[in-house]
Batch of 3 targets.
Target 1
Amino acid sequence: MAEAASDSEGQRSGVPPVIRSLRVAGDEFQLTRVLAAVLSEDGRACRSFLQLVLSAAASDESIGRHARSVRLPPDIACNAEYVLGRRGRGRVRRQSADLGRADLFFSGGGMRLVCELKLDAPYGKDQLQRYLESGHYVIAIVRSPGPVRSTVAESSRWLGEVSWGSIRDGLSRLPVRPAVEFEWQSLLRVMDTDGDFDPRPPTRTTERDLQLAEVATSEAVQRLGSRRMSADLRKLIRGFVITVSKRRRGAAALVSGGTNGDVFFTVTVSESSGPTPKVEIRWHPMPISPPFAGQRAMHALLTDDGFRAHKVRSGRYFSEAVTLRDAPGEGSIEEKIAEWLLDRMAAVVHVGLLNWDAENLKLGV
């Protein structure tokens, strides 16, 4: 009944259920592909999109003159995920052949322009600086413009940041082909509902995210504690406390224990309303610094088994992520996620890290 009601509501609002179900809120890669598909097949829409973005950038008091200086040729091509290379010849060019992938790359009549699209994700390390090294104009569409590095701001090729809100009305007026007009307008309405054009990212946590995080994590911990292991390790695992909370995107289950309530695992579940929920597990080593040789060897084994090592200000952690379509096993979503979490937790036990923590907790380290 709930699904039927949702479909009826979508039809009344003029949004096809297919568009609503396929759009993943906050997904920049998906948005990039849709924009490229719409703009690459229609020269008028492509040029109008650039005029819209550049007009918004021209209103910036500090660097608006850069956007006003760009002259658009009559014919412009648009490509998605375009690989950028350093401008130059010979050895200089070969030193850094790949400067990253531009979300949208516009070219024509000697004009080259990179357009970066941002919804939820931050810029990558030196991303804007690398794009500028390609020798092309660079502009970004973001939720809310903010300060950038001085080396970026001072470049004559940096055209600035434009907010989605400032171009939202203009997007609905783009002269797209009649064959895609209805789908384009429907997508914009879905993005309005999802808050993709808002100045700040909305909290994208559903009750389903919270339920899956709690149920699957509890099941995995319970099954892990029933396996054969040392008494100290079994005591540690059976004493684990699971606390579920909302995150900006998804729900997190913290698995803590020991005398100090240390967090050992963090399980994050997101996008469970779609066909392929995303799940991430993090293993947090006890903060022993510096790690001794045996611990470093166990960390290496963990990365060999699929985990990625991350260094943060408070220490380090190891993570691994999966989407439901990749998860092993059969049965319900809860069972598939629990099976994968159990396998990953068991990997930490297998290399000896959780056993090492249990022993050190016993010794009061």
Note: Residues 45 and 175 are 5 Å apart (CA to CA).
Target 2
Amino acid sequence: MRDDGAACLAALASAERADCARIESSRTDGAEWLVVCHSAAGTLTVFRLSQGKGFGYDLAVKRSIRIIPILIALLVVAWQYFSSEKFVNPETGESHRGALSEAQEDRLGLQSYQQVLSEERVIPSGPQVDMVRQVAQRLAGATGDASKKFQWAVSVVDSQQVNAFCLPGGKIVVYTGILPVAQTPAGLATVMGHEMAHATSRHGSQRLLQSQLMQTAMTGAQFSMADLDYQSQRTLISLLGGAAQYGAILPFSRNHELEADHIGLVYMARAGYDPREAIEFWKRMAQASGGQQPPEFASTHPSNYNRIQQLQSYMPEALKIYEQSKGAQQSYQLKIPNVETKR
């Protein structure tokens, strides 16, 4: 190898990194030279060439993060966000964006509901079904404009699961396992109002948009690290993933849970159910869980203690609505048709 400085080093840098669009070189001390490779992708790669012991040269490469993939990802994130559907939550007055239109949400909700009906043991009639249906009808009427396009339906599933949910478009499923915890119609109204609030607030569409934005950003970050060694890539991606999970995704979900608590409390108060029963319900839920709950920062749901504290802060508003709604339950009642199931 020639020992004539920049020309030799430039040739070596070009051979080692064919994507160099521009090369700068300078001599440091002794037989060591530095070559800076400017790639078309915006990467700056530093080559250090030093004379080895007895023969040839040793090449050291300092790798760096590419900028252009990050910039492209940010542009795509901005396009995804601003092209998404914007809507206003009529209960809070706040503007939000979602990944799906209302029509798309309704179709997905109906598909999921039909799948549940085909896979689970649905109870067609009986006292449990009558109670669930009555509570659902009163709550559905209390949701107002938030559900004006919903086609409400409700089913009771014979299962020990302590669970209930409301799919987009107003498809409600209540598992019999939650009825002993609910105990009363007001307790049942607490959990059903909460789940209905998730649907009327379109939380699923909001979370889907957030997931898409996060995925785009992470993809850009991965491409920007293409020049790093494998271990460095794994470490940085792991750090970014953890930051996204604990700094954005989980707090976003917990905020949705608290918002559903608040709106659900309003729904049950409008429908004539005593909102103070909500606190008793969540105390029973805490007891039913046996204290087995992950730390709040690592959970999609707020802690039972924090949830009860927040409900207590919402209580003055809810009690005012409840006093105004006494005796007016029938005006809120909304007829929900029977759901035919094939087993």
Note: The beta strands are 20-27, 33-39, 44-51, 57-62, 85-88, 95-98, 122-123, 153-157, 164-167, 171-175.
Target 3
Amino acid sequence: GVPFSELVMDVQSRENELVLHTARLHALGGRFEILPVTLEGSSAEHRISVQITDLDFGQILQSLDRPELSGSGRLDATVPLQFTPRGPRIHEAEFRSVAAGTLRYAASTDTAPQTDNIALRALNNFHYDSMQIRIDYEPEGEYQVRVRLNGRNPDLYEGYPIAFNLNLTGELPGLLRAGLFSGDFSEQILKNVQSERAKQ
């Protein structure tokens, strides 16, 4: 799991409801805070909003246990969470870079033998100026991750500016416990960068 520290909670129990005044902790180099909310005991569904500041992008990638991925930078995020009888749901969670950083994807030769694939070559050492990630997750395990990157690879075409729009979709029941990407991540990346290349 992901280690955390400095957990602070202020919760008040009332008749048939729970009032959350404060809930925050530090993890992945950043701060997580649940906005104040009252949870009705009679309700079948509950909604909370998690505000995240100054996340370490490199630590996030390390937590996914994907050796082909590495990076750097800092992110802020807003994550709306809905707890339903079927399980948790995330709608339009948004992660935004607060400064420039890097994303490096070292595709294996078995996954991506096309050495002339410009998009994959760009991701091999991508220096982003801005990054936006939007995440949706359904209780049944379906997820969609939309990534927009603006930046360049200094080793490719003299650092000519590049914009990526990647869309990763699939079914992953263990999303909240095991990270955002499953074992088919390499295949998803390959499909998307090939699509990007076709647009050029």
Note: DSSP finds four helices and twelve strands in the chain.
